[in-house]
Write a structure and sequence with these properties.
The chain is 37% helix and 6% strand. The chain is mostly helical and 95 residues long. The chain has a single domain, classed as Carbonic anhydrase (Beta-carbonic Anhydrase, Chain A), CATH 3.40.1050.10. The longest helix is centred in the N-terminal third of the chain and has 21 residues. The protein is flat, with a radius of gyration of 16 Å.
Length: 95
């Protein structure tokens, strides 16, 4: 089976996880969300950002625990119905 990326290597997985964590931190520190959170809110809804990695080989969804949302608001658990569907996905079915 030809693999485009070495998913099975721990180092590759760590690189992917660090990339997701950095992306979430960048969103938290240097995005429109950061600017919006620095002002008094007039929004009628809250935006939360979560960092996940999906392992296509196992169907596992890994929560990297780097979530953030509006200051002073508790971080909600993601209510994804699609999370269950993603966990049923298997890489070998499509490649």
């Amino acid at each position: 089976m030809y693999r485009l990326y070495p998913f099975h290597l721990a180092g590759f997985r760590a690189l992917v996880e660090e990339s997701v964590k950095r992306s979430v931190r960048e969103l938290h520190n240097n995005s429109l969300l950061a600017k919006a959170y620095s002002k008094p809110s007039t929004n009628t809804f809250d935006v939360f950002v979560h960092g996940f990695v999906f392992d296509e080989m196992t169907g596992e969804v890994i929560n990297l625990s780097v979530s953030f949302g509006p200051p002073g608001k508790p971080i909600l658990h993601p209510p994804f119905r699609s999370l269950a569907a993603a966990q049923k996905f298997r890489h070998d079915r499509y490649y």
